[in-house]
């Protein structure tokens, strides 16, 4: 049995502009101790998925349907107080912005100790000792002295470490980290991710890592789910995604990664932006941005299938949602993954998978609701279609 099993989850927000389907029929699972990445641009539904797992969706949002089973128990069936016990104790969350996660009027040590007292029923002295040990574990120097400092006396990187210490304070089975290092510079990011990974292994904690950064996924994760417009469009192991991506959106994300040693002047990006979720394009929601789109893509929503067999996959770990795998397209997906060997990769000596963009002219479809060119990448290097690409958050 997986630690977390999410099945057919649909979450909607009832706004004045209309109904936003932020998560649409989403299924995935995370095994005990596994590091599971969730990647996609802003608006893909990554954070809403995490909040749904924690049952933290607020008005005007509503979990419309689906089950979220944690350790065999359906969180959707639990009372509010039962879910509160699970939160922080069995499932903990690290939010993107450490500053808002910390209370400015309590010392950092007290904030960690409070969670320990509440969830683990420790006495004052034992909770203090455990909090100091956790501060030490996340790399806060002189943790005993810093226990009594307030959040504003810590740098951004140290505040984020405190948030990680808080999340780990009750030894959770699942840690949901929502863009945990977005606000930090790259050297601090590397240190924090490294520490997070080490601590997760030490505490045998599974991680659901939400990010827009495929580099971070490659560093840390075992498996990955790529999301677009509230749906999963690809699921794979990290190796499969890097060496054999199956969905054109994943291909676009892969092509947009900057690499040391690249001689091109401009970064490749995905044209256009995530669609307005009040009015998702018909058929495959990625079709206005997809260079392989055909007429059928505007009519039929692609199911998640095994890319080898074209058959439905349920909770399977290898899947892609593209009509190319269901036999509905006239043409094949025309891209190549090129893996550079060590001899061609002088900077770090690591094999470097990269995706070659299609040489063919982009296919235009009749229904192009946002008026975008369907050229996946800016092939003539003039930047005209470079409005999209990965964005923060
Ligand atoms: S080829 Fe069609 S179905 Fe596949 S991702 Fe592109 S638009 Fe979607």
Commentary on this structure:
This protein has 393 residues and is an alpha/beta fold. It folds into two domains: 4-221, Rossmann fold (3-Layer(aba) Sandwich); 270-356, no CATH class. The chain contains eleven helices and 13 strands. The protein has a seven-stranded mixed sheet, with helices on both faces. Helix 4 (108-120) packs across helix 5 (124-137) and helix 7 (156-168) packs parallel to helix 8 (186-203). It is globular and about 70 Å long. Mean pLDDT is 82; it is low at 341-351 and 359-393. The structure holds iron/sulfur cluster (SF4). The site of iron/sulfur cluster (SF4) has 12 residues, from loops.
Known CATH architecture of the largest domain: 3-Layer(aba) Sandwich
| Sheet of most strands | 7 strands, mixed
The level of helicity is 25-40%
> What's the structural domain tally?
2
Gross morphology is globular
Bound small molecules, which ones?
iron/sulfur cluster
Reading side by side through the largest sheet, how are the strands ordered?
6-7-8-3-9-10-11
CATH-assigned fold name of the largest domain: Rossmann fold
User: Residue ranges: pLDDT <50 for 5 or more in a row?
Assistant: 341-351, 359-393
Tell me, rounded to a whole number, the average pLDDT. 82
Pfam family, one: oligo_HPY
Protein name: ABC transporter ATP-binding protein
Keywords: ATP-binding, Cell membrane, Membrane, Nucleotide-binding, Transport
Domain ABC transporter: 4-254
């Amino acid at each position: 049995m997986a630690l977390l099993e999410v099945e057919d989850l649909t979450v909607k927000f009832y706004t004045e502009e209309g109904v936003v389907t932020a998560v649409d029929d989403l299924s995935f699972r995370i095994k005990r101790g596994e590091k599971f990445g969730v990647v996609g641009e802003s608006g893909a539904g990554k954070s809403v998925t995490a909040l749904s797992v924690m049952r933290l969706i607020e008005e005007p949002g509503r979990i419309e349907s689906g089950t979220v089973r944690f350790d065999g128990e359906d969180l959707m069936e639990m009372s509010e107080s039962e879910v509160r016990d699970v939160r922080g104790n069995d499932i903990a969350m690290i939010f993107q912005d450490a500053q808002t996660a910390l209370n400015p009027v309590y010392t950092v040590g007290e904030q960690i100790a409070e969670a320990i007292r509440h969830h683990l029923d420790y006495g004052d002295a034992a909770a203090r000792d455990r909090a100091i040990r956790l501060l030490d574990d996340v790399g806060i120097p002189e943790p005993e002295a810093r226990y009594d400092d307030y959040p504003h006396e810590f740098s951004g990187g140290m505040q984020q470490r405190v948030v990680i210490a808080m999340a780990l304070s009750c030894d959770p089975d699942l840690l949901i980290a929502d863009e945990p290092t977005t606000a930090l510079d790259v050297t601090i990011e590397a240190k924090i991710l490294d520490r997070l990974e080490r601590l997760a292994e030490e505490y045998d904690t599974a991680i659901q890592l939400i990010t827009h950064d495929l580099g971070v996924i490659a560093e840390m994760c075992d498996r990955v789910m790529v999301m677009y417009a509230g749906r999963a469009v690809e699921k794979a192991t990290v190796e499969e995604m890097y060496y054999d991506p199956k969905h054109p959106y994943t291909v676009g994300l892969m092509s947009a990664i900057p690499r040391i040693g690249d001689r091109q002047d401009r970064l490749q990006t995905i044209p256009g932006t995530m669609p307005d979720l009040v009015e998702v394009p018909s058929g495959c929601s990625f079709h206005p941005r997809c260079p392989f789109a055909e007429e059928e893509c505007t009519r039929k929503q692609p199911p998640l299938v095994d890319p080898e067999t074209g058959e439905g996959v349920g909770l399977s770990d290898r899947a892609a949602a593209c009509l190319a795998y269901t036999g509905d397209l006239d043409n094949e997906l025309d891209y190549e993954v090129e893996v550079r060997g060590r001899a061609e990769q002088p900077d770090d000596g690591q094999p470097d998978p990269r995706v070659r963009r299609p040489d063919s002219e982009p296919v235009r479809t009749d229904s192009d609701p946002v008026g975008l060119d369907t050229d996946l990448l800016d092939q003539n290097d003039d930047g005209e279609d470079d409005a999209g690409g990965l964005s923060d958050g």
